[in-house]
């Protein structure tokens, strides 16, 4: 057996099944505390939904995980690796494990749908054009747009563009998919198609999902755990049956009665 093929023991035998962990995370903008000593974790393969009023800090959590902003205090780990501080190379490695879909789909307007999906796998992961295209076509099939590979984003509806953005995120084979109010910018009649695709992905893949949404029916359907936020803190968490069926906190009841 050559040295290269010797099986080394797992270098991280103490790694927990938690894919994401936030410990005592605080984030301030100016004098305003947006996240206030937040602790929570997401186990691999689980679907966790963040609900709560606007401005309660939900999107900031996703942006921290994408390293788009930094915490003022606390520790964030992804798959056992700490972000902030981390060497640039490590940050890039961690970022490859995370895909994000935004409220505004941000597709490259001058590229075809297919090229939107193959671009990063080719340039970042080093896939061949053929491999990337085969993967992209499978994903277009998954999001119900197999016939749109050659279209430009401007030729698609908002819902279709968002489904392309979902395929584009999945093309990087991330371990975690972050979804930030992905249907909020859509016309109401286009929302269901996007949510159906996400339900399908939640059911048929083992991807971990962390999802900020105002779609309570969707949250109830796909979540293993729901976290109710208010003013940068988790006021209540639990399985969807508990949060939507028998919430314990008055703040949760108020919020749900306003949005349901
Ligand atoms: P949510 O997703 O729950 O609506 P956010 O995480 O977007 O909440 O925002 C939480 C708070 O942080 C809000 O009061 C928002 O105005 C503020 N905030 C978010 N990003 C910035 C920023 N880049 N600069 C200043 N304030 C910000």
From TrEMBL:
Segments forming domain ABC transporter: 20-256
GO terms, molecular function: ATP binding
InterPro entries: AAA+_ATPase (IPR003593), ABC_ATPase_HisP-typ (IPR030679), ABC_transporter-like_ATP-bd (IPR003439), ABC_transporter-like_CS (IPR017871), Ectoine_EhuA (IPR014343), MetN_ABC_transporter-like (IPR050086), P-loop_NTPase (IPR027417)
Family: Belongs to the ABC transporter superfamily.
This protein's name: Ectoine/hydroxyectoine ABC transporter ATP-binding protein EhuA
Cross-referenced NCBIfam families: ectoine_ehuA
Membrane topology: Peripheral membrane protein
Gene source species: Streptomyces thermoviolaceus subsp. thermoviolaceus
Keywords carried by this UniProt record: Amino-acid transport, ATP-binding, Cell membrane, Membrane, Nucleotide-binding, Transport
Domain of life: Bacteria
Keyword Acetylation in record: no
């Amino acid at each position: 057996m050559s040295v290269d093929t010797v099986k080394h023991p797992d270098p991280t035998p103490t790694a927990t099944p938690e894919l994401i962990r936030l410990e005592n995370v605080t984030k301030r903008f100016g004098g305003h505390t947006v996240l206030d000593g937040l602790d929570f974790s997401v186990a691999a393969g689980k679907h966790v939904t963040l609900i709560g009023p606007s401005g309660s800090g939900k999107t900031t959590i996703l942006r921290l995980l994408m390293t788009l902003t930094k915490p003022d205090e606390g520790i964030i780990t992804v798959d056992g690796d700490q972000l902030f501080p981390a060497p640039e190379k490590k940050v890039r490695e961690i970022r490859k494990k995370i895909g994000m879909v935004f409220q505004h789909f941000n597709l490259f307007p001058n590229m075809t749908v297919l090229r939107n999906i193959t671009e990063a796998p080719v340039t970042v992961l080093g896939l061949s054009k053929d491999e990337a295209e085969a993967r992209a076509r499978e994903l277009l099939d998954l999001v119900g747009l197999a016939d749109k590979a050659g279209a430009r984003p401007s030729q698609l509806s908002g819902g279709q563009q968002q489904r392309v953005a979902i395929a584009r995120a999945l093309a990087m084979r991330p371990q975690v998919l972050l979804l930030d109010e992905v249907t909020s910018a859509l016309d109401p009649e286009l929302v269901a198609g996007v949510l159906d695709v996400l339900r399908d992905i939640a059911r048929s893949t083992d991807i971990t999902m962390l999802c900020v949404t105002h779609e309570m029916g969707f949250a109830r359907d796909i979540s293993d755990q729901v976290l109710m936020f208010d003013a940068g803190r988790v006021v209540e968490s639990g399985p969807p049956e508990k949060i939507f069926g028998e919430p314990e906190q008055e703040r949760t009841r108020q919020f749900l009665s306003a949005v349901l």
